[in-house]
Design a protein that fits this description.
The protein is built from nine helices and eleven strands. It is an alpha+beta fold and about 325 residues long. The chain has a five-stranded antiparallel sheet with strand order 1-2-3-6-5, with helices on one face. Strands 4-10-9 form a three-stranded mixed sheet. A three-stranded mixed sheet has the order 7-11-8. A hairpin with a 2-residue loop joins strand 2 and strand 3. Helix 4 packs parallel to helix 8 and helix 6 packs across helix 8. The longest helix is centred in the C-terminal third of the chain and has 30 residues. The chain starts with 13 loop residues before the first helix and ends with a helix.
Amino acid sequence: MYNQPMALRSVLDPKYLAYCLSGNYNIGPWHECLFWLRGLNDTYRIRTSNGTYMLRIYRLAVHESDVIAELSVLIQLKSILSAMNTKVSEPIAKVDNSLHTVIDAPEGKRIAVIFRYIDGVENVLQDEESCYAFGISAGELHMAMDQVILNEPRYELDTNVLISQPLARILTYIGEESPAANFLQRFANELIERVNQAAKQGLDWGLCHGDMHGNNNAFQLDKHFTHYDFEWAARGWRAYDLAQVRGRKRQLTDKKEPLWDAFMAGYRSVRSFTVQDEEAIQLFMIVRRLWVMGLDTSFIPTDSGVLDYSEDWLEGFVHEFQSYNII
């Protein structure tokens, strides 16, 4: 098994990617392939004679079926949103009309997709006008998502995916013998119970973006937003989607309430959102934090290393969870 070098996660050479991919697309000769960003996945900027594009190389853990499901959602949304100001990122078809490529990496097979470059800037949502506009866009996106047909098998953003699975990853990392393990187990159980109780009131359920925090999932051009990063898109509670906007950390504390009110006014101007749904948002903000903690543990072995995820990291989350006073 170890008779040759092995990698946990590689950064692929742009020249290798150009060699593997350039002949598969009818976008003109490639003048540049530049490593742009290392995030959950790796992003490269491509410049050709026809324009600028963004190449995503998905991490090894993302299966081909997951990418196919994401791209199916995007293609449908592009059509549904054609008459609206809200847009979504557009995958570029290859010469054979397929949308993705499986390429070899030192750690195994990874998926490559090229997207059209999105014009615009990131709006950090620090004023009411911007929040109102983003609320309209979020409402239009959810309204369009109500029409999307999931053609591929897909998990749901239920308590298993949002709470139980992240908890299992956390406990595996810290160990069942950790003094924090019992508290985290009881905390997660209480979250599940509270979500189930809230869901009984008939919360809005449908296809969600899954990562709609407004930091790096949309660019604004004039008055419209283009949404991207649909990797986590799946059916779930819409209150969970909007909780990610509510939980933004880049807004001043004294401005959070008026900015949130402006966002919800924009959202409700195009789509209904019940009082019960809005009341559930605070709960889903807490659920999201546990999910984020579980996401951290997913990347510690292959990307982040353990140095920054030791006792201080664990105590920080435990103290935060204790401050919610739900157990």
